[in-house]
């Protein structure tokens, strides 16, 4: 088929498809545009540095970063196990790992309470033996965010591992390198772009987490009130503050997707 004919075929846009496509675009973009237009831009710097919004912003950044570190420590080995390990029932394991992607976050928070609460399956021992209580604390926020965000990292790293060329690892093994050395010096550097992309997505998801956080960690200003929770509270008393926080979260989401657009296009995630 010639280039001219290809262009002709591609240029045919059935009206029955174009109209729903435009309506879908409007449906997705107009609410975001309305948020931007209604934002109190003149008061934005002052409100961002106010005590309440500043505390929620700092807490969100710290907890999301710590949750991402936790996901990296646990998620990279888990992704390697799914991609390279000979695990019985690997398909079932992968399904369980990705359950938080489709599970309602509130249900995830309830599950965390039943396991890590003071009378939970594991939480009772943490509290009785070590005096550690995770629910309704800042560490509880980190745990809730990591639970919801980790699948993003695992999927990204597993995909990178599956697409990586195993010949370099085989060459390192023939030269006498141990499995741990091969992983550190060969495997991990080769999938670093996937790790970075997964970590960024993980961080952004943790930053915007609401349901599991409010269920497992509660809503205590300065301790567990992250930006999404602050948005929910501000809607009742100070709508402008809710809009400011929403704009910040929107800006972060757009920045993350813009930074990873090439990876999305190439289907690496």
From TrEMBL:
<feature type="transmembrane region" description="Helical">
    <location>
        <begin position="57"/>
        <end position="83"/>
    </location>
</feature>
<dbReference type="InterPro" id="IPR006469">
    <property type="entry name" value="NifC_ABC_porter"/>
</dbReference>
<keyword id="KW-0472">Membrane</keyword>
<keyword id="KW-1003">Cell membrane</keyword>
<keyword id="KW-1133">Transmembrane helix</keyword>
<comment type="function">
    <text>Part of the binding-protein-dependent transport system for molybdenum; probably responsible for the translocation of the substrate across the membrane.</text>
</comment>
<dbReference type="InterPro" id="IPR011867">
    <property type="entry name" value="ModB_ABC"/>
</dbReference>
<protein>
    <recommendedName>
        <fullName>Molybdenum transport system permease</fullName>
    </recommendedName>
</protein>
<dbReference type="InterPro" id="IPR000515">
    <property type="entry name" value="MetI-like"/>
</dbReference>
<dbReference type="Pfam" id="PF00528">
    <property type="entry name" value="BPD_transp_1"/>
</dbReference>
<keyword id="KW-0812">Transmembrane</keyword>
<comment type="similarity">
    <text>Belongs to the binding-protein-dependent transport system permease family. CysTW subfamily.</text>
</comment>
<feature type="transmembrane region" description="Helical">
    <location>
        <begin position="241"/>
        <end position="260"/>
    </location>
</feature>
<feature type="domain" description="ABC transmembrane type-1">
    <location>
        <begin position="57"/>
        <end position="260"/>
    </location>
</feature>
<keyword id="KW-0813">Transport</keyword>
<feature type="transmembrane region" description="Helical">
    <location>
        <begin position="136"/>
        <end position="157"/>
    </location>
</feature>
<feature type="transmembrane region" description="Helical">
    <location>
        <begin position="95"/>
        <end position="116"/>
    </location>
</feature>
<keyword id="KW-0500">Molybdenum</keyword>
<dbReference type="GO" id="GO:0015098">
    <property type="term" value="F:molybdate ion transmembrane transporter activity"/>
</dbReference>
<feature type="transmembrane region" description="Helical">
    <location>
        <begin position="186"/>
        <end position="206"/>
    </location>
</feature>
<dbReference type="GO" id="GO:0005886">
    <property type="term" value="C:plasma membrane"/>
</dbReference>
<dbReference type="InterPro" id="IPR035906">
    <property type="entry name" value="MetI-like_sf"/>
</dbReference>
